[in-house]
Design goal:
Elements lengths: L7 E12 L9 E13 L2 E10 L12 H5 L2 E9 L2 E8 L10 E10 L2 E13 L11 E9 L5
Antiparallel strand pairs: 1-2, 2-3, 3-4, 4-5, 5-6, 6-7, 7-8
Amino acid sequence: MDLLGNQECRHLIGFAHQSNGRNEPISRSWNRLYANFVFEKGNLAFSFKPWYRFSEDEEDDNNPDITDYMGHFHILAAYKWRGHTFSLMSRNNLESGFSKGAVEGTWSFPLGNYKYLKGYVQGFTGYGQSLIDYNSNESSIGIGFAITDWL
């Protein structure tokens, strides 16, 4: 018996090094091992991405509290409707009791008759929008172009 219906599941395991490329005192970096599990069914996708931060020597760690703000995972849901894709990401909200999390919403939409070129609008509020200010609460709205989206 197939309880999930015609659902597709993909997974990925990887290593990520993220750095702002700056020198001390504003240098920020971290190394993570992550997995990403993506479940799709029709026009809906859901992603769960947990990670493990590799510890650094105490004297070399320029952001020892980064997981307090960035957490240990994020979840993302995306829905496609008539060529438009809507997505919502949540990071560290549950772990921090909604005090140090982040939420990001994105809308991508077709531009003319170009199949792969999309416009997008994105709103963000919370911590960790940029690595240099990972421990600052920020809100922003952005617009731009994309050549792909979730669905």
